[in-house]
């Protein structure tokens, strides 16, 4: 999937370069990663891809995603918190480009009381699916299952919530929600416990996930 993500970005850069040549009055070409964070589907899909890579302990893929999104740094608080353990230049922001429901999850990173932190995670999980109603690809996909078994449906998962719980090493024993990817979080914890990654490509850093 990260290969396709990079290919999409490369095609988009070519289109941007061609547009800059055809319409010089708009200024020269400047790198701008393909995902548009102001577009709901782009934002959610990108967060999901990043969060899955984090939960798979796939450092190489995480860094590839961050590289594509280098033009997006300093714009979105949740994105900055998710990549904090993988970059040297930490940037704390208190808001998300798309506020609801993502601001709720962003608050988790700034809440010091563990009980309140878990309440925020639970709140986000409850908000998550209703907030996805404008997702053009898979919202209510389970209702569109065809006789031959095809549907734009592979489960509904708030992977970014799982990545948040994992990165902050929160106790999720009381979290029981349909969209929470508990098995994947448990898998990530086990890899961390064993000091294993599915891929490694990052410079040593003093900053690590909590619990590591």
Automatic annotation (TrEMBL):
Signal peptide: none
PoNi C-terminal domain: residues covered: 75-184
Pfam families xrefs: PoNi_C (PF08929)
Chain segments annotated as transmembrane: none
Official protein name in the record: DUF1911 domain-containing protein
Organism: Janthinobacterium lividum
Organism lineage: Bacteria, Pseudomonadati, Pseudomonadota, Betaproteobacteria, Burkholderiales
């Amino acid at each position: 999937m990260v290969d396709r993500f990079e290919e999409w970005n490369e095609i988009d850069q070519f289109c941007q370069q061609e547009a800059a040549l055809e319409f010089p009055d708009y200024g020269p070409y400047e790198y701008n990663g393909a995902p548009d964070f102001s577009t709901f589907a782009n934002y959610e899909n990108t967060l999901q891809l990043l969060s899955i890579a984090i939960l798979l302990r796939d450092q190489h893929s995480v860094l590839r995603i961050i590289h594509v999104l280098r033009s997006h740094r300093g714009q979105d608080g949740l994105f900055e918190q998710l990549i904090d353990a993988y970059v040297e230049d930490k940037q704390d922001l208190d808001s998300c480009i798309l506020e609801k429901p993502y601001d709720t999850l962003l608050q988790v990173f700034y809440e010091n009381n563990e009980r309140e932190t878990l309440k925020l995670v639970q709140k986000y999980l409850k908000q998550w699916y209703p907030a996805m109603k404008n997702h053009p690809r898979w919202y209510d996909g389970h209702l569109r299952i065809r006789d031959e078994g095809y549907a734009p449906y592979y489960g509904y998962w708030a992977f970014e919530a799982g990545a948040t719980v994992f990165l902050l090493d929160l106790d999720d024993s009381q979290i029981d929600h349909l969209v929470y990817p508990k098995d994947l979080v448990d898998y990530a914890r086990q890899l961390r416990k064993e000091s294993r990654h599915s891929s490694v490509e990052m410079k040593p850093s003093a900053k690590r996930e909590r619990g590591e």
